[in-house]
Amino acid sequence: MKRATNQHTIRPSAFRVRGAVLAAGLGASVVLGAGTAFASGGTEAAAPLTASTTADAVAAQAAAQGKAADAAKKKASDAKKKAEDKKKAAKKNAASWKTPVKKYTLTASYGTGGARWAAKHSGQDFAVPIGTKVTAAHTGTVVKAGPNGAGDGPAYGNAIVIKHANGKYSQYAHLSKVNVKIGQHVKTGQKIALSGNTGNSSGPHLHFEIRTTPNYGSALNPAAFLRSVHVSI
């Protein structure tokens, strides 16, 4: 009976030890779980801060890209406007200067030498039939008009010289008829004369010059000048 009693006494102790171990394990699990939860909670608390920082960086980058895009757009717009303004200016210049005759053939050009001239050729010749309408190449005021080259010599025959606002002068020679007078204001494309074969001329044509003064000896290359004001011949 005593032995049985001892055995009965030992069993509860074993259960108590086992229960304590289980309780300790459970406690550890709870503590670890709490730690895990705490760690997890810490991660979740940090996450909004990281997301906010990333959002700010993205927003800053987007703003910088937007500014760069706006700057590029403005630059392209300015370049387009500049090109359009240049095109308009070219059209305006082209409209304000014209060739003195239509349906012509270019013959002797500026600087040509030969027995026909005492010096090198001072203008550009436009071969046209006698009686072809000659018009003012640009708006200006007639400063010379008449026979004897309008004062520049008989070689030019009947001639006209027009002064322009840019300080240049245009001259028209070998005319069959002069239709303007000194002091008269003329517009671009206005009829001023009829072409002819007067003076030192080897055939019907218009002799055209661009000068820096109204007088002989100050001629520029008329073809180059016309190109500079966007008129092709």
If you had to describe this structure to a student in words, what would you say it looks like?
The chain is α+β, with helices and mostly antiparallel strands. It folds into 2 domains: 1-96; 105-228, Distorted Sandwich (Glucose Permease (Domain IIA)), CATH 2.70.70. It has 2 helices and 10 strands. The chain has helices spanning 2-96, 222-228; strands spanning 105-106, 124-127, 133-135, 140-146, 158-163, 169-178, 185-186, 191-195, 206-211, 219-220. Strands 1, 2, 3, 4, 5, 6, 7, 8, 9 and 10 form a 10-stranded antiparallel beta sheet that branches. The longest helix is centred in the N-terminal third of the chain and has 95 residues, at 2-96. The chain is rod-shaped, with a radius of gyration of 50 Å. Mean pLDDT is 81; it is low at 1-44. Residues 120-221 form the M23ase beta-sheet core domain. Residues 75-94 are annotated as: Disordered. It holds the Pfam family Peptidase_M23. This is Peptidase. It comes from Streptomyces violaceoruber.
Keywords:
single chain, 233 residues, ten-stranded antiparallel beta sheet, 44% helix, rod-shaped, disordered N terminus, M23ase_b-sheet_dom
